[in-house]
C-alpha cells in the first residue's frame, strides 16, 4: 500500500490520467456517432487514437524510442508482453488494433475505452471463441489493418521471453499477410525497469500508482528487420518469431531465454495466464 505522503505526490498525475481517459471515452463516443461503429478503423479514427495514446504516454512519463520501421499496410504484429503499458507504447507508434482477454472489459476506465476504440475480446478456454477470434483478426487484416497479438499469452518481468502460443498466429495465413515481430523493453537509466512489469497478483491501480511515483521511463521498441510469412508450418513460425524478439533484446534477455529453451509452442501457464495471444 502506498504511503499517504507519496500518494499525495502522484495525485495530480493520477487525476490527469483519469481525466485523459474519461475525455478519450467521450471523444471516442462522439466519433462513433459521426463515423459509425467501425470509426476506429477509418483514417480519422486511427489518427485520433494514436494522438491520444501519445498524450497518455506523456502523462505517464513514458519516453518512447523506436528502432526500425513498421512496414505499411496490413500485418500481424507480435510482441513480447510485460505490462499494460505495452499497448500504449505500440499504439503511440503506429495505428493498430489489439486482442484482449474478455476480463479486460471490467477494468476501471481502460476497459470501456478499450471496447469503444476497437479492441477485440477473447473468452479464454473456449475453442469456439478462439475460432471466432481468428476469423475476426483475419477480417481486419484482409481489410488492410494492422493487428497486434502477444503470443506469450501472459506477462513476464522482462528478463526473458516466454514460450509462444501458436494458435492465433494462423490468422495471418488466413488473411495472407506477414507477421511482424516487435521487441519491447523498459529501462530507468541503464538498468532494466522492475516496476512496470504487471505480473503475479499485481492489481492495475497499485501498478499504475507505482509507475506514476517512479518518474520518467524509457521504452524501447525494436521493429525486427525481417517480417515472417506463414507457409503452413505454425510451430516453426512461432519459433522464428520468438527468436527474432529474443535476438532484438540481447544480450541479457537473449542469453537467458536461450538457456530456457526455444520450443516453438507454449502450452504452459505463465505468471499471468490469459488466452493465447491475448492482451493481459
Structural description of this entry:
This protein has 280 residues and is of the alpha/beta class. The chain has one domain (4-260): Glycerol-3-phosphate (1)-acyltransferase (3-Layer(aba) Sandwich), CATH 3.40.1130. It is built from 9 helices and 8 strands. The chain has helices at 4-35, 43-59, 85-93, 110-116, 127-142, 170-175, 204-214, 234-249, 252-260; strands at residues 62-67, 76-79, 97-101, 120-122, 147-149, 179-188, 191-192, 217-223. Strands 1, 2, 3, 4, 5, 6, 7 and 8 form an 8-stranded mixed sheet that branches. Helix 4 links the parallel strand 3 (97-101) and strand 4. Helix 1 (4-35) packs parallel to helix 4 (110-116), helix 1 packs across helix 7 (204-214) and helix 2 (43-59) packs across helix 3 (85-93). The protein is globular, with a radius of gyration of 18 Å. The two termini are 22 Å apart. 42% of the residues are buried. Residues 258-276 have low confidence and may be disordered.
Topology (SSEs and partners):
Layout: H1 4-35, H2 43-59, E1 62-67, E2 76-79, H3 85-93, E3 97-101, H4 110-116, E4 120-122, H5 127-142, E5 147-149, H6 170-175, E6 179-188, E7 191-192, H7 204-214, E8 217-223, H8 234-249, H9 252-260
Parallel strand pairs: 1-8, 2-5, 2-6, 3-4, 3-5
Antiparallel strand pairs: 6-7, 6-8
Helix pairs in contact: 1-2, 1-4, 1-7, 2-3, 8-9
Amino acid at each position: 500500500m502506498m504511503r499517504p505522503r507519496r500518494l499525495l505526490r502522484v495525485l495530480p498525475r493520477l487525476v490527469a490520467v483519469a481525466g485523459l481517459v474519461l475525455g478519450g471515452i467521450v471523444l471516442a463516443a462522439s466519433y462513433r456517432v459521426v463515423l459509425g461503429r467501425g470509426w476506429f478503423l477509418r483514417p480519422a479514427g486511427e489518427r485520433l487514437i494514436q494522438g491520444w495514446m501519445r498524450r497518455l504516454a506523456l502523462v505517464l512519463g513514458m519516453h518512447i524510442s523506436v528502432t526500425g520501421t513498421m512496414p505499411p499496410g496490413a500485418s500481424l504484429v507480435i510482441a513480447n508482453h510485460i505490462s499494460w503499458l505495452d499497448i500504449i507504447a505500440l499504439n503511440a507508434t503506429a495505428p493498430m488494433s489489439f486482442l484482449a482477454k474478455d476480463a479486460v472489459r471490467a477494468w476501471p476506465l481502460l476497459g470501456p475505452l478499450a471496447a469503444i476504440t476497437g479492441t477485440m475480446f477473447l473468452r479464454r478456454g473456449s475453442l469456439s471463441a478462439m475460432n471466432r477470434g481468428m476469423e475476426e483478426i483475419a477480417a481486419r487484416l484482409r481489410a488492410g489493418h494492422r493487428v497486434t497479438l502477444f503470443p506469450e499469452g501472459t506477462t513476464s518481468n522482462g528478463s526473458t521471453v516466454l514460450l509462444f502460443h501458436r494458435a492465433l498466429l494462423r490468422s495471418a495465413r488466413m488473411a495472407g499477410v506477414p507477421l511482424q515481430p516487435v521487441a519491447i523493453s523498459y529501462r530507468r537509466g541503464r538498468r532494466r525497469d522492475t516496476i512496470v512489469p504487471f505480473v503475479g497478483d499485481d492489481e492495475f491501480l497499485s501498478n499504475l500508482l507505482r509507475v506514476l511515483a517512479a518518474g520518467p521511463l524509457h521504452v524501447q521498441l525494436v521493429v525486427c528487420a525481417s517480417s515472417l510469412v506463414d507457409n503452413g508450418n505454425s510451430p516453426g513460425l512461432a519459433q522464428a518469431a520468438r527468436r527474432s524478439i529474443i535476438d532484438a533484446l540481447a544480450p541479457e534477455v537473449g542469453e537467458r531465454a536461450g538457456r530456457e529453451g526455444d520450443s516453438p509452442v507454449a502450452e504452459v501457464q505463465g505468471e499471468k495466464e490469459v488466452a493465447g495471444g491475448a492482451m493481459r
